[in-house]
Description:
The protein is built from 14 helices and 2 strands. By secondary structure, the chain is mostly helical.
Amino acid sequence: MISKTVDKKRELSINWKLLRQVILGLVIVAAILFFNARSPEKTSAVLSSTLRYAVPLILGALCGIFCERAGIVNIGIEGQMLFSAFLSYMTNVWTGNLLLSLLVGMLTGAVLGLFLAFLSIKLKLNQTIGGTVINILATGITGYFYQTGLTTQGKLWNIPLGPLAKIPLIGPVLFNNPPITYIAILLVIFSQVLLFHTRWGLRTRAVGEHPRAADTLGVDVFKIRYWNVIIGGVMAGLAGSFLTLEGVGMFERGMTNGRGFIALAVMIFGKWNPISSALAALFFGFANAMQIQLQFMGIQIPHQFVGMIPYLLTIIVVSGFVGRSRAPAAEGIPYEKE
């Protein structure tokens, strides 16, 4: 009897949560349609800017999800993004080959992921310190070797998806983008399926929650952790490549500008779930797009205060005002095989 009551309460809680999400979604859609009817150009510009800003956050959050679902804390996403942005940019300057530049950026992220995995798994270094080492290393090397006056030989081009790109409002925003944006969207879906509907995902989550039990059942804990951190590095490399090959088309010292840390907040906001984290990244992207729009509107307040909006949201999220988020139980704990 008690069990049935508990199950019924849980079912009602899930249904109420789903209803709230549906209501919120309908309110957002209604607001977008309302503003589009009044000013289609501005609405399209804000939505495009939202997606553009969200892409590196989505990829950075996916990096964090793959690492932390396997029990490895990755504070070095910022450094992975920055180093990848620098090397993909320099490859584009030297060769003019955009595909090679993209591959170099992904490889850079993977190598830094391997470095973090080695520090965390083999040497059992404090994982927060390991990530901080990567951030400092990336900041120092890119700042030292960067040269002003360099020019690239182009950016990744937009690829319109046929008739889909002509759909009013959403067509130009979703279906007329450069390749990395499409890759980010596909990776969200792929990661969701991989983590929650495959044997690999089940083993990854088991390693992140209870590595001893997973090891007892024959799962290679070290191998799973190595591969997940490397895969996460590839995604951070994609995020860095986006900034220089698809975003601004150039490199500046410290150009990641805290995006790696915001990606961690996005991951927490999304409760270590790829789709929820992508929606959270869009929320942060919208906040950034709005602060830019407010500056263009000439609001009579210092632009520094408007520019603080995305970072204030980050503080609010990390502080727990969006509800409790439970990290994987074995996160940050080195595993000792008996």
